[in-house]
Amino acid sequence: VIQECYVQNTAREYAKIYAAEAEPLEGFGEVPEIIPIFLVHRPANNIPYATVEEELVGEFVKYSVRDGKEVNFLRRDSEAGQKCCTFQHWVYEKTNGSLLVTDLQGVGMKLTDVGIATLAKGYRGFKGNCSISFIEQFRALHQCNKYCEMLGLQSLRTTHQKQRKATTLKSKNLPNSSTIKKAVPKKARDPRGFISSEH
């Protein structure tokens, strides 16, 4: 329960900094807000700890899910969904890819019950309530929108493609048995056409 409060309230602090950068931008408009969550100790109760937060009234929407695979049209097409995507991108960039806020959901621009994925377990005190693979999926699947551009965020797709190309080139440059055979001069072959074992 303490970790749950820490996750949501830390994400809330990131959201406040994001809002301070985004709100002054012309045309950006309203910014998503992560509502605070409070830990209550009730020693006389059978369940001594509980969390309390503001009640959100209206249509509850999941703008993102933990595994990043769900196709959500409200996320892609709505203003709140696009701004949640941009918030995720902004946090990812601000933490140099070490942290990602996940499970963005709520009513309109008010969000609750968020998750956090970290590149390394224990990063900034997080036990890692979301898998590292969510960061990899986000990096591969995120599509920048006009709000990402307004904040001057770097395209993750370009970065991801560069990383994939570099990996592909490295694996292509690694010698395999067929390239080694072709590279051996004819003099190194014995009369039967086999490669000499002495190099």
UniProtKB/TrEMBL annotation:
Gene Ontology CC terms, in alphabetical order: basolateral plasma membrane
Name the UniProt record assigns to this protein: Alpha-protein kinase 2
Localization of this protein: Basolateral cell membrane
Composition bias type Polar residues, residue spans: 168-180
Main location (coarse class): membrane
Keyword entries, A-Z: Cell membrane, Disulfide bond, Immunoglobulin domain, Kinase, Membrane, Repeat, Serine/threonine-protein kinase, Transferase
Group of enzyme by EC: transferase
Chain intervals with Basic and acidic residues compositional bias: 187-199
InterPro entries from the UniProt entry: a-kinase_dom, Kinase-like_dom_sf
Reactions mediated catalytically: L-seryl-[protein] + ATP = O-phospho-L-seryl-[protein] + ADP + H(+); L-threonyl-[protein] + ATP = O-phospho-L-threonyl-[protein] + ADP + H(+)
Every Alpha-type protein kinase domain range: 1-156
GO molecular function: ATP binding; protein serine/threonine kinase activity
Source organism of this protein record: Jacana jacana (Wattled jacana)
Family the UniProt entry places it in: Belongs to the protein kinase superfamily. Alpha-type protein kinase family. ALPK subfamily.
SUPFAM superfamilies, per database record: Protein kinase-like (PK-like) (SSF56112)
Domain of life: Eukaryota
Functional note: Protein kinase that recognizes phosphorylation sites in which the surrounding peptides have an alpha-helical conformation. Regulates cardiac development and cardiomyocyte differentiation by negatively regulating Wnt/beta-catenin signaling.
Enzyme nomenclature, EC number: 2.7.11.1
